[in-house]
UniProtKB/TrEMBL annotation:
<dbReference type="GO" id="GO:0070681">
    <property type="term" value="P:glutaminyl-tRNAGln biosynthesis via transamidation"/>
</dbReference>
<dbReference type="InterPro" id="IPR003837">
    <property type="entry name" value="GatC"/>
</dbReference>
<comment type="subunit">
    <text>Heterotrimer of A, B and C subunits.</text>
</comment>
<comment type="function">
    <text>Allows the formation of correctly charged Asn-tRNA(Asn) or Gln-tRNA(Gln) through the transamidation of misacylated Asp-tRNA(Asn) or Glu-tRNA(Gln) in organisms which lack either or both of asparaginyl-tRNA or glutaminyl-tRNA synthetases. The reaction takes place in the presence of glutamine and ATP through an activated phospho-Asp-tRNA(Asn) or phospho-Glu-tRNA(Gln).</text>
</comment>
<dbReference type="InterPro" id="IPR036113">
    <property type="entry name" value="Asp/Glu-ADT_sf_sub_c"/>
</dbReference>
<keyword id="KW-0648">Protein biosynthesis</keyword>
<keyword id="KW-0547">Nucleotide-binding</keyword>
<protein>
    <recommendedName>
        <fullName>Aspartyl/glutamyl-tRNA(Asn/Gln) amidotransferase subunit C</fullName>
        <ecNumber>6.3.5.-</ecNumber>
    </recommendedName>
</protein>
<dbReference type="GO" id="GO:0050567">
    <property type="term" value="F:glutaminyl-tRNA synthase (glutamine-hydrolyzing) activity"/>
</dbReference>
<dbReference type="GO" id="GO:0030956">
    <property type="term" value="C:glutamyl-tRNA(Gln) amidotransferase complex"/>
</dbReference>
<keyword id="KW-0067">ATP-binding</keyword>
<dbReference type="GO" id="GO:0005524">
    <property type="term" value="F:ATP binding"/>
</dbReference>
<keyword id="KW-0436">Ligase</keyword>
<dbReference type="Pfam" id="PF02686">
    <property type="entry name" value="GatC"/>
</dbReference>
<dbReference type="GO" id="GO:0006450">
    <property type="term" value="P:regulation of translational fidelity"/>
</dbReference>
<comment type="similarity">
    <text>Belongs to the GatC family.</text>
</comment>
<dbReference type="GO" id="GO:0006412">
    <property type="term" value="P:translation"/>
</dbReference>
Length: 95
């Protein structure tokens, strides 16, 4: 399977990419190499091969999430650039 310059230009337009002539030829070669590799993969016999769920056998050990206050309300407001009694003041978001 190979693509031509027209197909590459169409893909570049959809992806909002711009190439000069030299780079365009290089990208065309790279794209054809990728498509050739995918064609090789399509030719492999995968009957009896279980699908991968994870790429490695490593198990991620995570700690339990525990809700706790690490910064008091007053300490959090102390570093605020603008505050109004007990609240942060931020620029208006909606008109």
């Amino acid at each position: 399977m190979s693509t031509d310059l027209g197909t590459l230009r169409g893909l570049a337009h959809l992806a909002r990419l711009e190439f000069d002539a030299t780079r365009e030829q290089q990208m065309l070669g790279d794209l054809n190499n990728i498509l050739d590799f995918v064609a090789q993969l399509e030719g492999l016999d995968t009957t009896g091969v279980e699908p991968l769920v994870h790429l490695s056998q490593e198990v991620n050990v995570l700690r339990d999430d525990e809700a706790r206050n690490t910064v008091s309300h007053q300490d959090g407001l102390r570093n605020a650039p603008r505050k109004d009694s007990d609240y942060f003041r931020v620029p208006k978001v909606l008109e």
